[in-house]
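Structure first, sequence second, as always.
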């Protein structure tokens, strides 16, 4: 018997978005007329060369920047018009960030780094310790809980960053060039870990990347060039 298709619900809606910024004395158009949505449970990649606008788009979804015009809605929050005081709380509770430079606190252990966001959320100490440990185990870092970032490889540090995002139970995880500083084998293992989280928990992932390997695993590729979407292609996750 054929399996019924999975019904997807839009988690992110971006409508008629443009973004300009000043660079020295120049007016730079980073994004122009962007219309795209991200469904709950997707494993989506924004791709394109440097300067194409993919990181700018991630920053808008994560409420790190505001568009010059248009609307960005994530879940039930219109982040493009929400007050700054509300956006800080939104980022803390709804968005998981994974940056290419890891952004781990060097004086904290892997477990403490994962716990940190939960502490900011006000999670009770025993609960946050359990959730942080579970996230590290699930991402393949059991036994590394008490190591500091300097005692971990680049791939392990990136996994800690993913565990930190996962433990906070966000609406979605945004990953900006997550394999950029990793060798091909480590990058592949990292993406496979993310795929497992996507399949087992329905965690929504949105990447910016120019890595062909990451693209090969994406459920949909949205290609940008010069601030415009030029192609959107869906395919089965490999």
């Amino acid at each position: 018997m054929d399996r019924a298709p999975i019904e997807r619900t839009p988690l992110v809606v971006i409508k008629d978005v443009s973004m300009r910024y000043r660079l020295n004395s120049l007016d730079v158009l980073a994004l122009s007329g962007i219309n795209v949505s991200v469904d709950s449970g997707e494993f989506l990649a924004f791709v394109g060369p440097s300067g194409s606008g993919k990181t700018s788009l991630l920053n808008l979804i994560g409420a790190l920047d505001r568009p010059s015009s248009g609307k960005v809605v994530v879940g039930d929050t219109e982040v493009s018009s929400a007050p700054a005081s509300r956006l800080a709380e939104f980022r803390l509770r709804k968005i998981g960030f994974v940056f290419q430079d890891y952004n781990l606190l060097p004086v904290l252990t892997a477990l403490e780094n994962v716990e940190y966001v939960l502490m900011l959320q006000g999670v009770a100490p025993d609960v946050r310790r359990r959730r942080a440990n579970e996230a590290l185990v699930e991402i393949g870092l059991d036994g590394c809980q008490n190591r500091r970032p300097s005692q971990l490889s680049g791939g392990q540090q990136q996994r800690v960053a993913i565990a930190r995002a996962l433990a906070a139970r966000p609406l979605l995880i945004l990953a900006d060039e997550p394999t950029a500083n990793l060798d091909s084998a480590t990058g592949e293992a990292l993406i496979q870990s993310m795929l497992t989280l996507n399949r087992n928990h329905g965690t929504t992932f949105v990447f910016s990347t120019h890595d062909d390997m990451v693209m090969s695993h994406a459920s949909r590729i949205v290609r940008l060039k010069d601030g415009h979407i030029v192609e959107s292609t869906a395919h089965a996750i490999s």
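Margin note: The chain has seven helices and ten strands.
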